[in-house]
Every structure is written in C-alpha cells, then in structure tokens.
Amino acid sequence: MSKISLERLQARFPKDVLAVETLPHGDDVARVRREAIVEICHFLRDDPELDFKMLSDLTIIDSLTRRSEAFGGSSRASMEAPPHVRQQPSEAAVRFTVIYQLYSITKKHRVRLKADLDDKEPHLESVSSLWKTANWLERAAFDLFGVKFDGHPNMERIFLYPEFKGYPLRKDYPVNKRQPLVEERNFPDLVRGPGPGPGGAGVPMSQTLVGRINVNRETYD
Amino acid sequence: MINANADAFSAEQDLPSKEMVINLGPSHPAMHGTVRVRARLDGETLRKMELDIGFLHRGFEKSSENSTWTQVLPYTDRLNYVSPLLNNVGYIMAVEKLIGIKDPERSQYIRVIAGEISRICDHLTCLGAMALELGAFTAFLYGIEARELLWDRVTELTGARMTTSWTRIGGVANDLPDGWAEKLKKTLPKVAELREEMDKLLTKNRIFIDRCKGVGEITQEEAVSYGFTGPCLRATGIDYDVRKAHPYLVYDRLDWTVPVGTRGDTFDRYLVRVEEMRLSEKMILQCLAQMPEGDYIVRDYRYALPPKSEVYSSIEGAMAHFKLIMEGTQVPAGEVYSYTEGANGELGWFLVSNGKGKPYRVHVRAPGFTILSALPRLCEGHLLSDLVPTFDSINMIGGEVEQ
Amino acid sequence: MPVDLKETSEAALVPALVTRREDAQSFMEKLVSGSLGWARKYSLFTYPFVTACCGMEYMSVASSRYDIARFGAEFPRFSPRQADLLMIVGTINVKQSVVLKRVYEQMCEPKWVMAFGVCASSGGFYDNYATVQGADRIIPVDVYVPGCPPRPEQVLDGLRLLQDKIQTQKHSLISRDQAAIAEDAGRRKGFFQKILSK
Lengths: 221, 403, 198
Prior knowledge:
- The structure holds three protein chains of three kinds.
- By secondary structure, chain B is mostly helical.
- Chain B contains 18 helices and eight strands.
- In chain B, the strands form three sheets. Chain B has a three-stranded antiparallel β-sheet with strand order 1-2-3.
- The mean pLDDT of chain C is 80.
- Helix content of chain C is 47%, strand content 9%.
- In chain C, strand 3, helix 5 (118-122) and strand 4 (143-145) form a beta-alpha-beta unit.
- Chain C is globular and about 70 Å long.
- Classes of the chains: A alpha/beta, B mainly alpha, C alpha/beta.
- Chains in contact: A-B, A-C, B-C.
- Chain B binds chain C through residues 26-29, 32-34, 54-59, 62-63, 74-75, 77-78, 81-82, 125, 128-129, 140-141, 144-145, 147-148, 161-163, 398-399, and chain C through 49-53, 55-57, 59-60, 63-65, 78, 89-91, 93, 95-96, 99, 103, 125-131, 148-149, 151.
C-alpha cells in the first residue's frame, strides 16, 4: 500500500521527486525539490487514492554538526548496528531540511516529505493554505530555526518573545544562553552542595559549608 | 403591547456600544496558567480571538539533544504531565523502532496496563477541571480522589506519583510488585464508582448540558485539516484511534471498540472521554487476565542494563553497565517517526540519530498543539463564557503544547 | 558546652522588672506583633501561579485527601490584590518572568512567596535558553519546597515552615519606614508654620 503512494508520486512528478525510499522500519520517505513543495502537497492532499488529508507534523533538522558529532568524541567501540539497519548517506552538504509527515485517515497510510533548503536565508513556500494546522507548525519552525515560510499569513514568533535574538534550536546556538526580559535580582549565591561549580567539584565534603554551621568541628574533622 | 416591545427591542439595538478588547491570562484560572487570549468582544460575543502561547516553553528539544537517549526519558514525563506513562511508552517505542528491537511480551502487557491507568488519570483530571470551571466543585473532588487511588497504584509500581520515567529501552524498569495485580483489581471498582458518580452528576445535569451542547462545534473536514486526533477528532465521528488503526503493543489482542461522537461539540468530547475511561478499565482487566509470565526487559545488554547480580559478578555485565551509563545506549544512525495514542491524540516522535549515545534531534508531535491552534475557530462567534468549557474539553496541556 | 560565667553574672545584674517607657512599648509591640502573626498565619489566601506539572500536585494538595484547608490556607484567590501568599507552581521561563514580576508587584503587603517544586526553586533540570534558574531571580522567595513535583506532604510541610516564619517575624499595625514618617512630620510642621505666620 505504501509503495503504491511513493510510486504514484514519482510517476506524477518525475522531475520534482528527487528520491524515494522505504526505510527498514517501514517509514516511506520522499525527497522533493523545494520549489515544487506546494504543488506536490496539493497533489497528495487531493488525489483520491492518496488522500493525505492530514498534515500531522512539520519540523526541521539542522544538519550542521551531524557528521562531526558522529565522528568526534568516543568511538562506537564494540556496539555494531543490527544488520538490517543501513547507514544513512552523507547529508552534510545541506544544512536545513524541512520534514512533513502526512497521514491519510481513510487509507491509513503515511508518507514523509523532505525538502532541503539553502544555507543562507532559508525559506520555503508555505503550505498553510492546504492544511490549517500548518499555520502554527510553520510558525513554530520559524521561531526555533529561523526558516521563513513565504505566503504565511502571520510569520511571527510563537513560543519565544519578539526581543529574542537568534534561533535556539539551531546547532550553533548555545544551550543555556539566556536573554532575560526582567533584570535578575542580585543576591549572594546560596551555599552549594557537592557537585559541579564553585565550592562543589572535587572539594571534600568536610571542606564545604553544607550543613556545618551548627556542627562541632572537632567531631567531624 | 407588541409595538411597545418592539420599541424596547429597537432601543436596545440602538444603544451605543463599541467593540472591546479584553485580555485573559496568562495567569488566569481558566487558561491553565500558560495561554494568553486576546479577545475582541462585541457585547458578550467573541468576534475575534488571538492566542499567545509560549509561557511554558522550556526548551525540551534543546535539552533532549544534550542528553543521552535514556536521559531524555524524564523530560518526556513533563511533556504531558497528566499522563506521563503514555509519553514514556511513546518515546521508548520510537527509540526501539529506530534500533529495531522489540520488548518481551510481558513488558508489552505491563506497558499497556500502565498506559491505560495513565489515560484514566488524564481523563479524570480533564473532566474534573472542566466541571470545576463550570461550577461543579463536587465532581472535581470525586475526580481527583479517583486519581489519587490510581496514583497510589502507580506509586507502588514506579516509585513516583506522576513523573515516573519508568519505561526502559527494551522493556520496563521492574516487574509488577507482588500482589499488585490483586490490589489494582480492588482499586478499579472504587475508581469506577467515583467515575460513575461524576458521570451521574454531570451527564444529565441541565446546567452542564446547556453550557456544553452545541458549543465549540467543528466539522469532520475542518477537524482533519486542523490536525485533530484523539478524543477531539473522535467526537466529530471519525473513528481514528492509533490503537485500532495501527495496533502496537498488544492492543490488537484486546476486545474493545472506538467510541465516537456525532456533532463534534464540547459535550461530545466530554462523552467520548467518559466512555474511554470505561474502555481503559476493561482493557486493564483483560491485560491482567492474559498476561504471560516471563522477562520484563530484553536480555540484550547493548540496550538494557544487566541485572545487578551480573554487574557485580561478571566482567561482561560490568562492562555493559559501564558503557551504557557512561556513553549512553548506542542507537544506530537513522531517523524515525513513531506514533502512539496519547491521552489527547496521536503522540508522534520524530527522532534522528547519528549513531552516538545522544540523540541528534528529538521532536515531539504534540497532539494538543494542533488542537489548540483551532481554538479561535471553535470559539469565535460564541459567547465569552463558552470559551471556558471549550478550552477545558480540548485538554490543553502546557507542557506538550509549548514544549 | 562550657557556660561562660562572666556573661551570666552580667545578665543576672539586669533587674527583673523594667518599667521604662521604651520597654513597655516594645512589650506592647510584641503582643500586637504576635497576635497579628497568629492571625495572619492561619488565614493565608493563596494565589496559585500555576504554570506546569506541579499544578497537578497542587490540585491534590487542594482537594479532599491532603486538604490544605486544614492549615488555614484554603481559599485560592485568583486576583493578586486579594492574596497574600503567592505560590509559584511550576517552571518560570523568560517570557513568563515579566508576568510573575507584575503579579508579585500587584499583591498588597504583607505578602509571602512559596516556590513550589524544583523548577521554581532553582530551575530544575531545565538549564537552557528558555528557563529562568529559579523564581528567586525575579522576586524574593520565603519558602522553597523541593521535589519534581513535591509530594503533597512536602507542600504541607513547607506551609508549616512558612507559618512559623510568619509567627516569628515582626508585624506592626501601621508599618511605615522612618524616612516617610520624618517627611510627613516635616510637611506638617511647615503647614502649621504657614498658618501661624499669616
């Protein structure tokens, strides 16, 4: 059943569908040209045999550090992949990939569309005219990755605030770089327990101040 | 007489009035703490409504990408904190699908039992809160007490009341405790009693019906276009349930049907949830009857922690333990979209691995997110007071919607 | 512990009964403060600033099994102007911090704050771009209840701790800082002088 949808898609758009594959665990994936995304989605939605009336998810992968993370750090050691799992081909050339998960309630099948974007000023045609749910999903993708969707009715941040600079889920955004809106109170640091940080890492319990205010030093030291 | 009335009516119509913009939330009892509504009112009618979310955006995806595969598990609890076990199961099943392993049969049954308990808790909380906000405080107390009874069992099973982090790659953390099944069998009738009391208090209650019926209606086509899943979609009459359409775990061995509504309004959503609680109880009892003996976690030590006796007595066990703890489970490179039925609908996980101990990308398709985006559509044109039952019936959970 | 004889002997020289005016006043103040504290600690009106997971436990605390009403903190008020205990229930992120600060500023004195759960206390395990590392970076906090989320018993324990704090802290009938009183007195003096000079 799923094979049919991929074949049908490829037959209809021989030029715009770059590759199709069925992954070992059963997901159908079609990589498409980004210029044709709306046309393809329109076909998938309205074709009676495919009938993808639901856009269940839309997200983005930032492949900036995908290869370097895989080969840096500790090795894979003795852990080999099960034989049925193929290694993915190299994807480092493209940075942002938009992922669409489509579902058909009547035919009970799914397909995943992928569209690669340019590195500089990534943008893509919006599908919010086809599925109403795309409105918020695209806003979320824009908010966290900075990918602009052309033709979207309201391309603004959804989770974060307008003052936020940068796009947090990009791999080059530091994990805990905060951009506070309210000036944070200045108060003396709490006495820290053992753990990373000042007064914690590598310091024996006996030298920290935790719980030691009321303790007779002679008993413990 | 008739003329005088007509005059009074026209005089009312001619009263000078103008549109008013009011702001509900984000800290508002009916907004569940995290949603801000900017409503444009004409009298008491909602003309236009804008939602502002993100007041609980906690950077779940970024944090997950900096944790090992197992460390993501606690974050998943806190997505839908009303039914954490369903999230645990959903996430772990996605990882297992990516690795290509299947958990033992007993573990599958345990997961279904735990998940369905969680589903009951979720619906109890949702309906209790809905009743509370419509003024029925008693029903809320009954719902919460029933949830406490179930949470007692969850605590015995997992060690935590709500944030359980209990499933593991390849199974679950521990077997059912001794005598737990019997205790659960005694608890379920008590829960059922409270649930039926709630049902009696609400389902035939004139006030409740008046406030819910015909409010927040949506057609099937629109619901699908908005990406509705779960009870909200089923209330419109579409019998899409992942457990039935694409059975996972042992749902295909259980005897149950999918409850559907007819109109897709708030009252139907309420009825579907009540019916689902009954079904979940039925499923739990079936699982307890069918459950086989056996392992509760796979014995493949590349993915599952070996038992402590082996860690302390054999070098292989110690090595496997060390590697799993220090490097994390090595998940083969690839990507996967896995879907299970969460309490609010299809809970999808899109995971990307580059073959290391940490996920490269974790994305959750939260059912509530797409449903919440339809809230203006559900409420516009209705009274402002209709916003409250509609908002409650879609069961917006800040954690999963705003990640 | 060895007893320091010198200190005790000095202390023994202080007469048992003091009738000086200041001391009598302080006795009255203590009496008033103690009774106000007693009244205030058993009539806490809470403002549940519920944002996240801990809200589920807040429901448990408030409903029949754990019943926070037994300790005099029964009635949640959803208007900050009517509340005197702000319960920060859940994670505070940067976007929310503005709201939190405003809600706190809208509350009338005397007011207390409880950080409910580890996210409100220290940010918890959400150490990333979005979350504030503890509500005490935004507003002062009186009691921290740890746990993710805390069990209801912990919350009740935290409430008892807060009640102890309220009992022992200083309450007065009209609290005005000295600068304001001096300013007020100066203004009055100037006013009378103006009248007299006419």
